[in-house]
Amino acid sequence: DIIRTVSGSDDTSPNGASLLILENILRACADACAVGDALLPPETAVHTFSSLAKPLNKVASLLSSNQTNTVYKYLLIGALRTLGDISETTIRAFQANTSRNVIFPVSRLICLASAAFAPSMRYVAAVSGPVDDALKQAFLRALRGIVQAM
User: Fold this and answer.
1) Which of 19, 48, 60, 134 is a plausible cystine mate for 123, CB 3.0–4.6 Å?
2) Count of alpha carbons within 13 Å of 87, Cβ hemisphere only?
3) Contact residues for 84 (Cβ-Cβ < 8 A; gap 6+)
4) pLDDT in tens, 77-90
């Protein structure tokens, strides 16, 4: 609740400070979910990442009507890349025959995050006209990862 509040999910249109807070929390979650030598991201990182869905869904809805806003694009690309990363990591953990007791807690949180980000995915999919290539690639990778991880 605190993360959603300070990152501007209650603002009609996020202000500069809210967007900066959202960007920093998103970057911290993305860094924590970049597993490196670990097989899966920490549960707390995935849970915190999923809590950013509400403010990022608002950003996605605003981006659908204002595709020139580079801050909105940057945030959404970062979120979609992180969603793709954690989904692909889960798939690799299954392929590596990691214990289901280790995979399932993180996998459950990834399912929750995927559901929470569904409005963002819908807004990106519904954009009419040309779509930024980086946004399109991040969207397709996240969607592919989500479908395969489920």
Assistant:
1) 60
2) 26
3) 138, 141, 142, 144, 145
4) 999 999 999 998 88
